[in-house]
Design brief:
Layout lengths: L3 E10 L2 E11 L2 E6 L6 H9 L6 E6 L2 E2 L4 H6 L1 E4 L11 H12 L4 H10 L15 H12 L6 E5 L7 H14 L4 E5 L3 H7 L2 E5 L4 E2 L1
Parallel strand pairs: 3-8, 3-9, 6-7, 7-8
Antiparallel strand pairs: 1-2, 1-4, 4-5, 9-10
Helix pairs in contact: 3-5, 4-5
């Protein structure tokens, strides 16, 4: 069962190509995207998530073309970037509500469990820009699981996490990989090993599965 497919993707900035010829076909499982700094891991995740337009190619999420049926595709998709998006005046609870509203769902029990496990409940009424980097990271990760997504994209998910949160995230990825495609970019070899993820290497121009 294919959950995420990319066909001949190319992307870059200001006319400069970061990568081209990317092809992926991912079913349920955990996948670690690795490669040198600057190889385009974060760019690829943004393109797969619909946060950046590709220069060429197509992305299919759970059978939905991301360009032609973006709403249907994004309801099956979750994305947690490495850095907090520009919502400095938003409170944690408002960020979660915004993500849920965009997907037309409620957060659900998995998200509630992550909020408790990540010890986020005391911070939900705090402004995002007042939170520590680690707390911001945990909030983004909890938001990623809203709506029971079938494709989960995470950029450097273990960055800034304490041991308890890291272990909880590893468990969540291993559990969800049974029925969802979890693709994460990382430099953390120990995290890759703990999740049991299949390694995909992004070179200067293409990703090899």
């Amino acid at each position: 069962m294919t959950l995420l497919a990319a066909h001949d993707l190319a992307a870059g900035y200001d006319g400069r190509v970061v990568f081209s010829g990317i092809g992926l076909t991912l079913g349920p499982g955990a996948y670690a995207l690795v490669g040198r700094n600057g190889s385009g891991k974060s760019t690829l995740l943004r393109v797969l998530a619909g946060a950046q337009q590709p220069m060429a190619g197509r992305v299919i999420v759970a059978g939905h073309d991301l360009a032609r049926a973006p709403l249907a595709a994004r309801r099956q998709l979750a994305y947690a970037p490495d850095d907090m998006p520009a919502y400095p005046f938003m409170r944690g609870r408002e960020l979660l509500a915004m993500v849920a509203a965009a997907k037309r769902v409620t957060p659900g029990p998995v998200v509630e469990a992550l909020l408790a496990t990540f010890a986020l409940l005391p911070y939900l009424d705090e402004r995002v820009d007042a939170l520590s980097l680690g707390t911001q990271k945990k909030l983004l990760l909890a938001a990623a699981w809203i709506g029971a997504p079938r494709v989960i994209l995470l950029d450097e998910p273990s960055n800034a996490l304490d041991t308890g949160a890291r272990d909880a995230l590893i468990g969540r990825i291993r559990s969800d990989a049974v029925g969802a495609a979890v693709l994460f970019a990382t430099h953390d070899d120990a995290f890759v090993a703990a999740t049991g993820a299949e390694v995909l290497t992004l070179s200067d121009r293409a990703a090899a599965a």
